TrEMBL record:
It comes from the Bacteria. One of its GO terms (biological process) is phenylacetate catabolic process. SUPFAM superfamilies: Ferritin-like. Coiled coil: none annotated. It comes from Blastococcus tunisiensis. This is Ring-1,2-phenylacetyl-CoA epoxidase subunit PaaC.
Amino acid sequence: MAHEETVYDALTNAHDDGGQWAFGTGFDEPLAGVDTTVPDGVDAADLGEYCLMLGDDALLLAQRLTQWITAAPELEEEVAIGNLALDLLGQARLLLARAGSVGVLGRSRERATASIPDEDALAYFRDPDEFRHTALVEAPNGDFARTMVRLLAASTVRVAVLARLRESRDPVLAAIAAKGVNELAYHRDHAARWVLRLGDGTAESHRRAQDGADAVWPLLAELFSPTEVESRLAAAGIAVDPAAVREEVVTVLTQVLDQATLRVPAWPADVLPRGRRGEHGPETAELLGTLQGLAREHPAATW
């Protein structure tokens, strides 16, 4: 019988049996040919820090979504959630690689081995206070309704930001945004469908969806206050001022909750984003313990 290569054979045989990487071995490099030079007048440290902010949000939310694998309410939804998480991991990979390419590695490089790619070093070998994600993505999942409300909020914000980043003066950020915005629009629509289904469903599903909204809304307080890094990069045409997307996000989330017969919780007052400064709750350390455990125990391993 003629040998028929499987997906597992393809992973094993790719790249001369070198170590394999979970983010997409064998797929086309989405940033091939993109100019990686830091734009004139831009501080490389600022650019790297901004990429960490966007990349860490994607990485932590992906890790939260994977916690639903084997626990989702439907088999089809389990597959869908896994694919959403993979989209976010792909975005995290590109953003952390960009951060590493401009020199933002710090203590993570000291803890990793020299052969580990920058994006892996940043994902697996930073401590919690070196991460720059917001409270919205670090919070525990709660039940399925809360997860869908959180996904709706996070993807709505991210769509608004990446849509504008397609015009960034940094060609790498612009390319990442162009690739990611369609993925995120699907994430937003997928979550919105579930919020509508749950909010306008049974009395129990409505209660859970409302409880989810009430739990998620306070986590939005950090999302629209720019850090100094974001302000400088926005002025330079590199980044998006988060305050600029507030109106769009409020409009979309209000529309979805209204159609789902849910009460829109009071919008929290904007506060300085502690997460962007590396100030996180104990949930982050717990989540990173699961994410980073294997890599830290076997830092030189390949598979």
